[in-house]
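Collaborator request, handled under Task 6.
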Amino acid sequence: MRASRQPRNQPQQVTAKSVTLTIDDKPVTVPEGTTVLQACEQAGSPVPFYCYHPGLSIAGNCRICLVEIEGTPKLQISCYTRAAEGMTVRTTSDQALAGRKDVLEFLLANHPLDCPVCDQAGECWLQDYYMEHGLYDPKFNEQKVKKPKKVVVGPTVMLDAERCILCSRCVRFTDEVTKTGEFGIFNRGDHAEIGLHPGKQLTNNYSGNVVDICPVGALTDRDFRFKCRVWYLGSTKSVCPGCSRGCNIEIHDNRERAHRPHIADGARVMRLKPRYNPEVNQWWMCDEGRYGYKSIDQNRILQARPGTWDEAIGRLAGLLMQLREGKRLDRLGVILSSRLTNEDLYAAKRLFKELGAPRVVFQRPKPGAGDDLLLQADKSPNAKGAQALGIPEGAEGLIEQASRGELQALLVFSEDLATLFGEPRVREAAQRLELLAFIGPNANKTSELA
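Structure tokens returned to the collaborator:
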């Protein structure tokens, strides 16, 4: 699993002109301004890289993306060199491979040999590229420069400066994306190291992204550290339900849980990672969404109350049929949630429409914090879906009707009305109802009243 190697999704510069070049004897046409690295990707001849990221400025400081360009006396870094008409590029020539091997040796000269205990093992680009381009006989003595280890740089991130290869991705991310500028490179030569500027802590809303883009084990996630080896993880594409942005994500779960229950106390979801979508979240996701997965296992409703699941469903179905047969479905209120999927919202609307229940609405969760990058104050993952289906918004009216004794039953999906409208108010409404049913995955104050 190479979860951090998302930059393979590369936006091309929009231009009317194009150039044609030859890469490993294959002609390829790309827009003018495209880098040789991007052209190599398009030609099916990818070159290794560490510092390059399509969402950040080009630094050109890791030097691993060396290629041979005909007519140029020296090897060139492909991330910085622009493709030109008639250019001939070789990515696997003896000279290019030898250059990459030398670069790797320099990068590993002071790197600690701690792969077995490194949390990045299994998705580390140093490991991968060493097997592809390294395998050299080392020329350096084992006298490595010592740097700070296990440095807490913020609530979510740990720094091991000895593992850092100074690709500067984290520096550029905090300078260019979040514009908070926490990271810098200090000192010179082989004593240069990544660190925080004096008085700074990595506390921005997107701190976890520096772990995603770190190609080695220098920056690790404090929440995920030592929970599970990455080769035990399965991956499922999904969408973050934390707010109305809808960031595309990957859910990494412990597929070995059934056979290795001792891992992370048998937890199922181990972490969330952003999934590239140029129209929604690009390569990033906020920390609120990233660490919101813990609610999956918190206060899960595992048993119906009162009685068994069959008894609860039977009672609910019986009341619905009673109201239908008595033509009193106007005394039934249904509160759907903007957290529900389009499929769930459609199925609920169709069910209650066919029953003849007129009082069906949806409710948004309580608003929260937002910013100008991705995080939205509207915490509704799917209010637009409910609106597109023509479902009215707002549960307050049904609560008032229940308090006045105008409703006989109220069905609530997922939302905690007690938190939204106050527990005394919802409790008063519940006392006037024959049935208050809560349908959702997690217990809350409303489910306690149901």
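The cover message to the collaborator said: "The first strand starts at residue 18 and ends at 23. The two ends are 44 Å apart (CA to CA). Please let us know whether this matches your experimental observations."
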